[in-house]
Specification:
The chain is mainly beta. The chain contains no helices and 22 strands.
Length: 274
């Protein structure tokens, strides 16, 4: 009787976790992941990630050639595990169709262009041209990690903005092509340390931003080259919203606290002092 074992590492971020396969009860083993091939055609966004957090791996009890393992972002399967016996690469397929381990933080559906564009925790977000398949272009590019908010100009829906948490100090970007390509804001308000939330006016000419780390709301009329603080506002974690008709009108949403669970809405900008 042959005792076959598969054993993963855990939390080895780079180059990736490894899986060892043994056919002699663990006396010796061969790696079957680091030198393997990986197919991401069902979910192209995963191609840029390295398998990690391999918290579980299972061999099919009826077919020792088939195995599955989990990662921090999805599930892989192989049907040729025995290739390792011949010192040939094992082929793994990312099997995440219908199963997405993501955290959507903001979704928008512009009146033109892609029917859905998303801001996602860890994985930036996606331009969803076809809602039935994982986007072939993968994540929004450039990749920054956790995107906290996204918005579009109601009268110019191809113009979009998104904000994100990034250790390089880049917290926002804009797109003039409906999310197909992005340009980083040239600057950020002093004291900003995260994406926060952002809104863009109906005509696309004004950005209103409440980044993390500051107690004010800032606006820009030059696509983020410079920012000015809106007057009369000294509160953090606000959520600015743009009027979808009047390009000079914005609103703020004040999150409820433990003492007051009522939602409070108020206009934040009558004029932008332009």
């Amino acid at each position: 009787m042959v005792c076959i074992l598969v054993m993963p590492t855990l939390n080895r971020w780079w180059p990736n976790d490894e899986i060892c396969r043994s056919t002699n009860g663990g006396s010796t083993c061969k790696p079957v992941l680091g030198n393997a091939t990986r197919d991401h055609s069902l979910a192209p966004y995963a191609a840029v990630s390295s398998p990690h957090w391999l918290g579980d791996i299972e061999i099919d009890p009826f077919d020792a050639n088939t195995a599955w393992f989990v990662t921090g972002y999805g599930v892989y399967q192989t049907t040729n595990l025995r290739e390792a016996d011949q010192n040939r690469p094992v082929a793994w397929t990312f099997q995440n169709k219908g199963l997405e381990e993501t955290v959507p933080l903001k979704l928008v559906s512009p009146p033109a262009g892609a029917p859905l564009v998303s801001a996602i925790g860890d994985l930036d977000g996606f331009r969803h041209d076809n809602l039935d398949v994982s986007p072939t272009a993968g994540r929004l590019n450039p990749r920054y990690g956790t995107n906290t908010w996204i918005d579009y100009a109601a009268h110019q829906p191809a113009f979009m903005v998104r904000v994100f948490n990034n250790t390089d100090g880049k917290y926002g970007a804009y797109s003039i092509g409906g999310g197909t390509a992005w340009t980083s804001f040239p600057s950020a308000p002093a004291g900003a340390n995260g994406g926060g939330t952002i809104a863009v006016s109906a005509d696309g000419n004004t950005l209103v931003w409440a980044p993390s780390g500051v107690t004010s709301v800032y606006y820009s009329t030059n696509r983020g080259t410079s920012w000015r603080a809106a007057t009369g506002i000294s509160k953090a974690n606000l959520k600015p919203m743009a009027d979808r008709v009047n390009a000079r009108k914005f609103y703020r949403y004040v999150m409820p606290n433990a003492k007051n669970q009522k939602r409070r809405y108020s206009r934040i900008l009558r004029k932008l002092d332009m």
